[in-house]
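Handout, section B. The chain below has 317 residues.
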Amino acid sequence: MTGTDEAAADDALYVLTAVLLTPAQFPSVLGDDYPAACAALGLGPYATGYGLVMGQDGDGARWTVVVDDVSLVAVAIASWDCGMQYELSPDERSVVCALPGWPLAVAVAAPGVAAPHDPAPDPGADGRDLPPLAPPDPDVWGPAQRRLGADAIASQWADWREQINDETAPAAAGDGSAKESAEDEEASGADGENAGFTDGESAAPDADADDTGDEGITPDSAHRAPSGTHPGVRRALAEAHAYLDAPPPPGRVRSSFAPGDARTIRADGPGWSMVARTDDMAFLLLDEMPGEILPVRRGAELPGLLKALDALAVRPS
């Protein structure tokens, strides 16, 4: 492997960016939890995780190289995030496999080679090779877009929070309601934002644009949806509460740093995603409500739920 500023042999990879694939941190586009994300790439859910290195070969073809040297990839990402130069060049012995394509949209390209494109099928595979990885279509709504939307809110929490009036946002339903049936028709969420979501990952500091093609989603760019109620919010809260009695697969609930003594909670389930602050409110996104963001203020029920989810969540080491 080589950096984008070095000459290389035809089989070298010009590294453009990288992401972690661990129980505590993985591209949400791949699945609701760590095992699901690994399965999407044909990998085993090893506890130590992987690094996903994305780049182009000498012909310009897109490749995602999976390595088991997680620490090396983590150092590279941290350096890029700080605006520092870092040449990510994993040892060949750490390479687990090379997958055609990229699972995320990458806006930059390696200089001096052809424009990014999918590699040609391997003639020796007799049609058994996997189709190239590709990012989700931003013009449709589904589980991947829903999870990416929650990631976008988590990364821009302050901007989204400023748009919510605590007096008008609905609270998590009262006493014991999170344990009630998912089919309960009483709604507990309202007032959404319509928007399309894209992902954002760390990029090398030399990039002319965000490496994942994320132009950023902001509350100012969203359109206010009509107020309303939806039973899917109660269902999502009930399923999140059920995690306390039956812990979900690793990565289904994640906890990360937030200002002060708070934590940011990211939780996913069948058809829903939640992002919340342990000292504040929550936002929910549902497969059945394309592009809408449903705020749930603290009320009496939510603080205890968030504290309990934080206790069982996977945290970055």
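Note. Residues 64 and 99 are 5 Å apart (CA to CA). Compare this with the example in section A.
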